[in-house]
Design brief:
By secondary structure, the chain is an all-alpha fold. Helix 1 runs antiparallel to helix 4, helix 2 packs antiparallel against helix 3 and helix 3 runs antiparallel to helix 4. Bound molecules: fe (ii) ion (2 copies).
Length: 166
């Protein structure tokens, strides 16, 4: 299904950024912590406002309409992980935006980013190994996945573009 392929392609881009963040973590100091800013913007924009929105507003509802018991299973769990991921990113952003970051601030950021990375790697694995496979199975029966989701994906992208002033 093309809609799932798009989400997997977005995971690849997110994973590339996570690898760079992982390399940065041990090198962070009170002097250079602002190096994280573009990565935090990427996580808030591309990973959350675009990728998570595609899952939460389009893929998950399409799946739940056809298989409501997923709410108590993988969809419910993955939604909770989006909330956790958002909270980790917000907490790191709060420290990085502080005018003077001390050593304990750097340590907090390093710990939070490590938690974020392990949560997010496991999250992507669960989606690709379990949830997206269920989506493909549903589509094999209903044959309406791309018909329902493809245009919605494009619409969301346009809305994002408008918000970013593009
Ligand atoms: Fe997700
Ligand atoms: Fe995802």
């Amino acid at each position: 299904m093309k809609s799932v392929d798009i989400l997997v392609a977005e995971h690849k881009i997110i994973l590339g950024n996570l690898r760079e963040i992982e390399k940065l973590i041990p090198r962070l100091t009170t002097e250079n912590i602002q190096m994280l800013t573009p990565y935090l913007e990427f996580l808030q924009g591309y990973a959350d406002e675009q990728h998570h929105a595609r899952e939460e507003k389009i893929l998950f509802p399409w799946m739940l309409q056809r298989q409501p018991d997923l709410q108590q299973g993988p969809v419910g769990l993955l939604l909770k992980e989006h909330v956790q991921a958002r909270a980790f990113v917000a907490s790191v952003t709060q420290v990085v935006e502080t005018l003077v970051v001390d050593a304990s601030g750097v340590k907090k950021v390093q710990e939070t980013l490590n938690l974020f990375l392990s949560l997010y790697h496991a999250h992507i694995a669960k989606e690709e190994d379990i949830l997206y496979k269920i989506a493909e199975q549903i589509d094999a029966k209903t044959h309406d996945g791309d018909k329902c989701m493809f245009l919605e994906f494009a619409k969301l992208e346009r809305e994002m573009g408008v918000r970013n002033g593009l």
